[in-house]
Design goal:
By secondary structure, the protein is α+β, with helices and mostly antiparallel strands. The chain folds into two domains: 60 residues, no CATH class; 49 residues, no CATH class. It has four helices and four strands, in the order E-E-H-E-E-H-H-H. The chain starts with a strand and ends in a 23-residue tail after the last helix.
Amino acid sequence: MVKGVVEVHSCYCIELGEPRPIPCACRKIVSIARANELVKLGGAEWVIGYDRPKPYHDGGKICLTGRMNQTPRAATIDDVHIERAYVDGYQEEKSRIEEYGKLNYDELAYLFVNVSAADFRKQEDADWGIPVLQFTENNRTLGGINREER
């Protein structure tokens, strides 16, 4: 390693205690001043060496922190899929959009319950005037306003 520079690793997560992969493909280097700044700001940690009888501070390497695996993107329909399906005419994209719509419909249908009109009206009359969201510490009228009028 050249004196005055520090090797920057992003190939593993030091916070999770992962070992550094061998061979490592990291080739980025920064000055010692920049490395100290990164460590001070919490963006990196000094690599601790364990290849000697006692662990030691390896002044020539830092590992970037906060680079844990990101949450994967959810499967959804993007504008690119719509363009491919309806502008370019790809049947596979059309079927993907239709399948996604069916899944969406099924999930939304699961959230609703069929109720007869009479049962709905009976419950609506019982709940008339009661706020949907009740806040506990306020000075509003308890039970709703003009509840008896209906």
